[in-house]
Amino acid sequence: PRCKAVSLRTSEFTDPTMPITAEMNLNELIIRLMSFPADEYSSHREPDPDECLTVCQLAINFLSSDTAICLRVQSPVNIVGDIHGQFHDLLRIFDRLGQPPKSKYLFLGDYIDRGKYSLEVIVLLLSLMLVYPNSVYLLRGNHEAANVCCRYGFKDEVMQRFGNETGTSVLMGFLRCFQWLPLAGLINQQIFCCHGGISPTFELEPYRSSKPVSAITSLNSMRRPFEPPQFGAPATCCGRTRCRIRSSACSKPETSPQNKRGCSYMFSLEALESALHSFGAGLLVRGHQVAQEGFMSPLT
Q1: Count of CB atoms within 10 A of residue 192's CB?
Q2: Catalytic: 288?
Q3: Which terminus of the chain, N or C, has fewer Cβ atoms within 10 Å?
Q4: Which domains does the chain have, with CATH numbers?
Q5: Where in the numbering of this chain does the Serine/threonine specific protein phosphatases domain appear (predicted)?
Q6: Average confidence (pLDDT) over 77-104
């Protein structure tokens, strides 16, 4: 990949609880990960603990420099849904659509769990964000939360690769980093992007009657770092509160509870239009839900 050379000494960013001593060349790390062999894993050099912790700390420093929960992004941009540790799929996306900075990307979260190569996925994406901050934007999904990624594979992958003691340090580094990821993106002031969707939160004040600028300001008033709660705007955006699209044939305008978990909602076209109006947007793009053809547009 055509990456500018970036060599970052991390001593000035070091959290004393994170044992980071290495000098990191993100350019070399990106090239190495981009060269991941499709058929011969044994010849691949995986990210080591120092690299993981250093990338996490640099990402925290970068993400904490911007207080916005909702990113403002300009088109053209490629929007990518859940990766879930499928590293070769991520590389295929870059092969087909172009590598940063030639092509711009907004990722909607859920980078880890389920797949075999969550470490490679998240280390590469964080590194690309650091090298090309105007070309790679990362949002938070519900799997970038401690109570989820410790149950669905990421914790096990880290422990298996690095052992319990080192693995615990690496896992904590990623969990701290995830707490700083933004929750939403607004493309050209028209397309609202997040991992989860909408819920009754956006039918309440300050969102229901706010002007678009005020709604964005309200969203950005939340302060990171945090673990997403079960309910509220942070839970809705990152998918902690699960959201599903109701059939367009349903005439009910409101959102309604959807399943036994007690934290899901289905939403109609009318509810969607009301929520989007609060942000001055005309389209919602979300991840979190399987689309067999790669994407679907159920409420258009």
Answers
A1: 25
A2: no
A3: C
A4: 7-182 (3.60.21.10), 196-286 (no CATH)
A5: 139-144
A6: 96
- Judged by average pLDDT, the poorest of 29-38, 90-99, 177-186 is 29-38
Q: Which of 143, 195, 277, 288 is catalytic?
A: 143
